[in-house]
Design goal:
The structure is a single chain. This protein is mainly α and 147 residues long. The protein has one domain. Strands 1-2 form a two-stranded antiparallel ribbon. The chain is globular, with a radius of gyration of 17 Å. 30% of the residues are buried.
Length: 147
């Protein structure tokens, strides 16, 4: 079952804006998930470049990605979780780094357990997911050494 098949079982949005333009996939997802994929009224990807060094903003994007995953059946984008991990390590906040790495890995594991692989690219094969998984042991080591 495709993303749009799953989304439109939940709601039947219009594909057109009031001005007649076609809505983007992000706009459709925002509509049928009541804005789960939005942070301050914008889609998470719109913050990727402008707020990539703001750990609090990246955490909000992580939350939005997880809400969207639950509401729309789309796998959460790893970029925001990796940024939180990187920024957390720079701040020597190893507990937060471990938390966000584990949170993403668990969410993705649960996603594929629930939805399977039909119609989904496997993010676990991508470089960002692998980077998150590979940094977790070192983050745990750093956390243990600093407690």
């Amino acid at each position: 079952m495709s993303l749009f098949d799953r989304l439109f079982k939940k709601a039947s949005p219009s594909f057109r804006k009031e001005n007649g333009e076609t809505k983007t996939s992000g706009e459709l997802i925002a509509e049928v998930t009541n804005g789960a994929n939005l942070v301050d009224g914008k889609q998470t990807w719109e913050h990727a470049e402008t707020h990539k060094d703001d750990v609090e903003y990246m955490k909000r994007c992580c939350d939005a990605e997880l809400k969207t995953m639950a509401a729309a059946g789309t796998v959460a984008v790893p970029f925001y979780f990796e940024r939180v991990a990187i920024l957390s390590r720079k701040q020597k906040n190893f507990r937060q780094e471990v938390e966000y790495c584990e949170r993403y890995i668990q969410a993705v594991k649960e996603f594929y357990r629930m939805w399977g692989h039909d119609g989904h690219a496997d993010v676990r094969k991508g470089p960002r997911y692998k980077a998150i998984a590979e940094r977790l042991p070192k983050a745990k080591e750093l956390l243990a050494a600093n407690q």
